[in-house]
Amino acid sequence: MVNKENAAPQDTPACVETKYFRLPDQVSFSLESGAKLKGLTIAYEAYGKLSPAKDNAVLICHALSGDAHVAGYHPGDKKPGWWDDMVGPGKAFDTDRYFVICSNVIGGCKGSSGPNSVNPGTGKPYALSFPIVSIHDMASAQKVLVEHFGIKRLLAVCGGSMGGMQALEWAVSYPEMVASCVAIGTSYKHSAQQIAFDEVGRQAIMADPAWNGGDYYDKEHPSAGLAVARMIGHITYMSNESMEKKFGRALKKQELGYEFSTEFEVEGYLRYRGDNFVKRFDANSYLYITKAMDYFDLQKEGKLMSAFKGVSSRFLVIAFSSDWLYPPSQSKEIVKALKMNGIDVTYCEISSEYGHDAFLLEFREETKLIKHFLDNTFKRMVRK
Predict the structure, then answer these.
(1) For the segment 168-188, what is each residue's pLDDT rounded down to a tens digit?
(2) From 113, 161, 180, 187, the catalytic residue
(3) Would you identify the CATH topology of the domain 195-291?
């Protein structure tokens, strides 16, 4: 008998599987730093069917704490993938029409090569011996996977936050492979403030005695430090309006206790978020991925306009009114640089109280925009 409460919705794939693509150990994967990685492994999930012409493929890139599991349910899951409202039959990324791929970034901790994966040379986790990676390296690894499917040109590359950085990187680095780019709540570079927040999170992890210079995989993990890093990050994902509306100054008990316990509802919420995060994420991956985001800068010789020369993709750039982590002003800079290059770009600023988290929550507005954009892109691509 099916438990309807926990059963997957009928418009969502009932069960999906994470798969793994691995390059042979003798094949070295070159990184932007000059380092080489052997045995590159990419965890990915795929939805829908690739057309005989292989012209209906969409690559979705995840944000900092995401992974390859973008939609559907794994066996035993009570919750679906992180963007399930957007991926599936009839949704923004309609799997009845499109072949959707999502992979875990390298440097991550959900199956792709990263600091918690085994170094084939030692048989032990890489830890900090894993080479530093960049957003370009993430896109380059995804390119290896895309080519594995025999896809020569993607209908679209899409992502929000760090996923948007990867989408922009794809359009700039591999213009011949990208018909369109959907960049949501993102930036072409990290500002000093954005770098500062990342650094505080990294320092919280490295200050945890259990971090042990990154060598903790067979010992106690730096859970306290990672939880604090997540708490800091989560504050930046919400807006003042959404926090005030959700929590205000509400107390967990009826009156103040005049002690350093968790008294305000917002304190309990942040601790809950931090404690849950450490159950599914690796502290070293947090260091690597935030550093990759901080390194990201599309400008060439200090000019963003120069980065988009030779780019042939159509663009849809979406920002959110209350997003103060990646404010609309940063998206508008991208749009301006694209227009100055004569590139086809559509910009939309969605009014939302959710802050940066809006890219995960405002799915109705995003669906309308993305559905129409992909449909037009597909029609143009087929005509060519």
Answers:
(1) 999 999 999 999 999 999 999
(2) 161
(3) Rna Polymerase Sigma Factor; Chain: A (1.10.1740)
